[in-house]
Amino acid sequence: MTLAPSPFHPFERAVQARLGVSDKLGKMGAKFIRDEMPEQHQEFFQGLAYLFAGWRDERDRLWASVLPGSPGFVDASDPRTLNIDLATTADDPFKKALVANADLGFLGLDFSNRRRNRVNGHIVHADHDTLTVTVDQSFGNCPKYIQVREMQSAHRPTPSKTGTEFTTFTARETNLINAADSFYIASGHKGKERAAGSGIDVSHRGGTPGFVHLTDNQTLIFPDFRGNFFFNTLGNLESDDRAGLLLIDFATGNLLQLTGHARTRWNHDPSIHQGADRLVTFTLSAARWLDGHFYDDWSVPEPSPFLKGMGWQER
Question: Domains of the chain (ranges plus CATH)?
Answer without folding.
Answer: 10-307 (2.30.110.10)
